[in-house]
Amino acid sequence: MNADPFEPHDGHEEEGGPQANSPRIPPPRASIEDTGHPLPELPAQPMNQAPSPPVLEHKVLKSLLGAWALSACSADEAAAVELHLGTCGTCAEEALRLRDAVGLLHPEESLDLDPGLRSRVLAGCLDRRPPRIPVPDWASPYDAETARLDALLQDFGEGEWHAPVRLKWYEDERAVNRRTTVAGVIAHLLTVDGLVAVALGLDDPLPAAARAVMTGAETPTSRTEAYWTASRFPPTRGVRMPWREQSHTIIRTVSFAGGGAAELAVPYGEFSLPLRDSLLDRAFECWVHAGDIAEAVDYPYEPPAPRHLNRMIDLAARMLPSAIAERRRSGLANPAKRLVAAGAPGRSLRLEVEGHGGGEWLISLDSPGAVGSSEHEVAHVALDGVEFCKLAAGHVPPEEAAAGQDGDREAIRDVLSAAASLSRM
């Protein structure tokens, strides 16, 4: 029988062979903790003092610049490289160039879909098989914006539906706001879209209990407040499906009605809009409130497709002369200035909206029914498209609007204030 390889031996070998008791595998070394001897003293390290970075040669540090730019160095290597960059201008310039290159390799992208993607996909499908009942072109912004908002809401959890949202608008020369929830915003859109539904002969989403508490003219604000007041409990995620079904029904109805429905009047209480403009107004409100919701849940939300944004801006620009006249009757705008020449259209302001969806509009300052004329242009205002929409939505006070201004200051102030007055809850 072979000897135990771990059996201790006395160091003597048998004649003509290896040591009789020599182990084939050396035994483990004893730990210093098992000997009873004191542990060796370590050099003292000052408190709160980081260890010094390793000292590396220049060529080694230079070879590490690429890994440093990609954040792939170890902590010690990164510290050594950064210490070196403070003393070597050549390496510092190379490091800056590499960091810029890394930024191009990894551009920041929004998780939100391109707002034009849906339109392009539908256009491709419709080129292959045209629809038997097409959606009117003037209804496409409303169709697109309700679909985008519905996509945003699709994955919301219960907690997100109750996230606080602050609705903002401009009223009586001051910014006002109303606190609600994500579900409350959808309830607001449901009740105001109901004005369009009723004009089309569809069911009114406003419950009888809400109608019972409504006082005064039936306006978007009064309908919303009545809905919120009459509800025994705050709105929940259950409001999504009625809003979604109503928007789909509106689109189906106007599609079957054809072009003849475009001029159907939709009352808003104090004024009315033709159906083509009312659906554009509802598309604008849907986008604005979708942005409010996205901000509340910290999610990015892109502006509408440029051609839809252009139509929204155009509607606001067409409404400005009437808004100026209404403010003048209330003593909030400067008096009209009549020109000497008979039949003159009055003064005009050139509104230039820059960026995607932009354009130029001549705003009549003295006559709400007249078309602006470049012959009597007294001022020029330039704004970004999204900035102008925020102004018209009451999200930016007129005095804070980032606008390039030239010409008659009173006229400019009247137009910017009138744009803010277009907003409502």
Automatic annotation (TrEMBL):
* Keywords for this protein: Transcription, Transcription regulation
Q: Name one Pfam family in it.
A: zf-HC2
Q: Does the keyword Translocase apply?
A: no
List the residue ranges of the region (Disordered): 1-52
Could you confirm whether the keyword NAD appears in this record? Answer: no
Domain Putative zinc-finger residues, every copy: 63-92
Could you tell me where the Basic and acidic residues compositional bias lies? 1-15
- Which positions carry the signal peptide feature in this UniProt record? none
- From which residue to which does any coiled coil extend? none
**Parts of the chain that traverse the membrane:** none
Q: Which InterPro entries match?
A: Anti_sigma_zinc_sf, DinB/YfiT-like, Znf_put
Highest taxon of source: Bacteria
What name does this protein carry?
Zf-HC2 domain-containing protein
